[in-house]
């Protein structure tokens, strides 16, 4: 499998890639933990230009404010085809995802199980590539399974 370097992920984070290339990156990201790590590193390297999180409550407010802004933008210009900047292209969006993923991985320690799970679901006989959404759903289920197992163990 071909992987993207941290420098390449940096370009992705900075939104310096063409739309088609971006999609390739995103598709790969959903199926590759190694590149997810590189992506997180790239986001971390970009951190200086991004908002600083001093505490959880502030962060939540910041996210809610961001969502409200986007909603307002959509409500105000329902007919405009081209938006100035979609939420997916904003650095804040990347940072939010990276923060969420990092917290999840740190608190649950499921990185290993995700890798194993991904190996299990990669069926060479499969005709079609799983869709981006399917990949995300699979990962979410893997996390949930692992969390459930941990809870059961803790309950004993
Ligand atoms: Zn990769």
Descriptive labels:
transmembrane helix, 7 helices, 156 residues, 0% strand, binds zinc ion, mainly alpha
Distance between the termini: 41 Å
Large-scale geometry: globular
SSE ordering: HHHHHHH
Enumerate the distinct ligands: zinc ion
Task: Give the helix tally.
Answer: 7
Radius of gyration, in Å, reads 18 Å
Number of E-type strands? 0
Query: Mean pLDDT, rounded to whole units?
Result: 71
Instruction: Characterize the main sheet.
Output: none
Quaternary organisation? single chain
How big a fraction of the residues is strand? under 5%
Overall number of domains: 1
Q: Poorly predicted ranges (pLDDT <50, ≥5 residues)?
A: none
Approximately how much helix is present in the residues? Answer: 55-70%
Structural class: mainly alpha
Write a compact overview of the structure shown:
The chain is mostly helical. It contains 7 helices and no strands.
What does this structure look like?
With 156 residues, this protein is mainly α. The chain has one domain. It is 69% helix and 0% strand. The protein has seven helices and no strands. It has helices at residues 6-13, 19-31, 33-45, 56-76, 91-108, 111-121, 132-155. α1 crosses α3, α2 crosses α3 (33-45) and α6 crosses α7 (132-155). The longest helix has 24 residues, at 132-155. The radius of gyration is 18 Å and the shape is globular. The N and C termini lie far apart (41 Å). Zinc ion binds at residues 3, 28, 32, 34-35.
């Amino acid at each position: 499998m071909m992987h993207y370097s941290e420098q390449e992920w940096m370009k992705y984070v900075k939104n310096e890639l063409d739309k088609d290339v971006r999609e390739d990156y995103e598709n790969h990201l959903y199926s590759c933990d190694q590149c997810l790590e590189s992506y997180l590193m790239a986001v971390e390297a970009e951190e200086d230009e991004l908002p600083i999180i001093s505490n959880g409550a502030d962060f939540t407010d910041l996210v809610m404010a961001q969502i409200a802004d986007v909603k307002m933008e959509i409500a105000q210009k329902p007919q405009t085809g081209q938006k100035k900047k979609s939420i997916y292209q904003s650095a804040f969006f990347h940072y939010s995802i990276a923060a969420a993923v990092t917290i999840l991985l740190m608190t649950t320690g499921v990185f290993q199980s995700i890798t194993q799970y991904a190996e299990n679901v990669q069926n060479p006989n499969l005709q079609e590539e799983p869709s981006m959404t399917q990949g995300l759903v699979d990962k979410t289920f893997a996390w949930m399974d692992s969390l459930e197992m941990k809870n059961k163990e803790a309950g004993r």
